[in-house]
Amino acid sequence: MENNRFTGPHVQIRHLDVYYDHQQTLKDINLDIPRNQITVILGPSGCGKTTLLKSINRFLDLSENVQISGQILVDGDDIYDPKIDVIELRKRIGLLAQRPYSLPMSIYDNVAYGMRLHHLCNNKNEMDQRIQHYLEEAGLWSEIKDRLHQPAVGLSVGQQQRLCLARGLAVEPEIILGDEITSALDPISAQHIEKRLLDLKKHYSIVIVTHILRQAKRLADHVIFMYLGEVVEQGPAHEVFNNPREQRTKAYMEGQF
Amino acid sequence: MRQSHLKIRHLEEYIVKVLMVLSLAVVVACAAFILFTILYKGLPALNWAMITQTSSGGYYLGQQGGILNAILGSIYLAGGGTLLALIPGIPLALFLHTDHHDSAWVKLVQLSLDTLTGIPSIVYGAFGFTIMVALRLRASLLAGIITLAFLELPILTRAINEVIRMVPEELEHASLGLGATVLETKIQVVVRQILPGLITAVQLAFGRAIGDAASVLFTAGYTDRIPVSLFQPVASLPLAVFYQMNTPFPAVQQRAYASALLLTLIVLVISLGSRLLSARLSRFIIK
Q1: Counting C-beta atoms within 10 Å of the first and last residue's C-beta, which end of chain B has fewer, N or C?
Q2: 8 Å CB contact of A57 and B177
Q3: Using CA atoms, how far apart are residues A183 and A166, in angstroms rounded to an integer?
């Protein structure tokens, strides 16, 4: 991808409609996701946040009976264009799930998995170094450096979420999507993850979904507020939080939903 | 009123507990009784020659030598049959799981597998025999392996399918999200996740095959020699028990119990071995 010259918003969504079993879950979504910032998609449960997130790495393709229309441009390229390779796209756009699922292998192999798939590294020494690097970036290295070859499933849930982060970083994505990534974690682990995201935004564009207002305020540079399948309001965090233009946004901030 | 009702509830609890303990006792007693019988009758006839020599004097009347031909024959037959059944079994189980949960095809395949599981093994024997004749084979190791593979395929596929169904969808998504293809995900993640269950499935199918007499009766034949090619007939432990038991001589009948004891021991060792292996591997699986 030699699209680094593209200087517009990292992701642009235009007139996106999504139907599940003929029921419309996303209605005419138009939004921009800026580069190297944390974008928070905020809204009550069931408002289509997760569907929106999964449309960006084409995870919606995995469900049956889904109809999608409209455009999603990543670096200016429409990702629903038949010429786009989904495998390549998912390498560029990592997804962290709500509940971390480690792969059934050692901690080391979890991080190595994606690198091996994409042949990113063929040399054992370099592989060791990179694995250390990504585990450090995810803030997990110091805790597990002596048991790299133990099963990943032996880690705590919070550690597994950071392992999933390291595993995602290892395939060298440009964008990281996160779906309520701290909701299964204890407060300390959640803090760990939030801190990592704030460090990582220098190199990645990050999009996370949450319904926790306080978390959104801690992390967001850019906010998208959704309600019932629509984007109600979007803009820089300080504007949306301090001077919401829409009545519904204001109501949500005040805890009315 | 409430007091008496409470009494009835406690009584129910008690009756069910007693029933459970009784069922447990029946199972344990059966196993113990069978084991005791073959130990009691077979142990005196069991000696070193029995497991290191082939039979001499004919399998029907021979009182000398051993049953190495049947021990090895059974391992070849069941091992070969299991390997052969795995070749279509794993892809079939994966197919039954992938994307097509509700299709008419999947339902048809599952109905066929369930029916095949219930068919008596003598029918597989007769079926194997017709295939053998059609292929112009004679009773041989190969014909026996093919017949046992048919016998094992439904057991194996159903057992593997059950384990695959337990694999969380999110686990596959985790791999797909990193840019893996569906095939890479199945082979590198799903197969690894089901490995302990796969071993149990293989052990079940192998156990069924090694203990089956009827399906190898017409297809594998019987011989005093150890086969050196796939096209030679081969002896098996269940048939050794069958032939030896049918002789009029108590000494040979006793050898039948020794053969049964050896068969039981082989199954026991394989079960224990697969349990150990499966326990080691399940350290890695995601719950």
Answers
A1: N
A2: yes
A3: 19
CB atoms under 10 Å from CB of A191, counted, come to 14
What ranges do the domains of chain A cover?
A: 3-253
Q: Domain A3-253, what fold?
A: Rossmann fold (3.40.50)
Q: CA B154, B155, B157: angle at the middle one, nearest 5? A: 65
> How confident is the prediction along chain A (257 residues), in pLDDT tens digits per residue?
444 567 789 999 999 999 998 899 999 999 999 999 999 999 988 889 999 999 999 999 888 889 999 999 999 999 999 999 999 999 999 999 999 999 999 999 999 999 999 999 888 999 999 999 999 999 999 999 999 999 999 999 999 999 999 999 999 999 999 999 999 888 988 998 999 999 999 999 999 999 899 999 999 999 999 999 999 999 999 999 999 999 999 998 888 87
Residue of chain B whose alpha carbon sits nearest to that of A86: B179
- The rounded distance, in Å, linking the Cα atoms of A11 and A55 is 12
Q: Using a CB-CB distance cutoff of 8 angstroms, which residues of chain B are in contact with residue A151?
A: 283-284
Provide ipTM, 2 decimals: 0.90
CB contacts < 8 A (A, B): 77
The amino acid occupying position A11 is: V
> Which distant-in-sequence residues (6+ apart) come within 8 Å of B20 by Cβ?
none
* Cα–Cα distance for residue pair A80/A78, rounded to 1 Å: 6
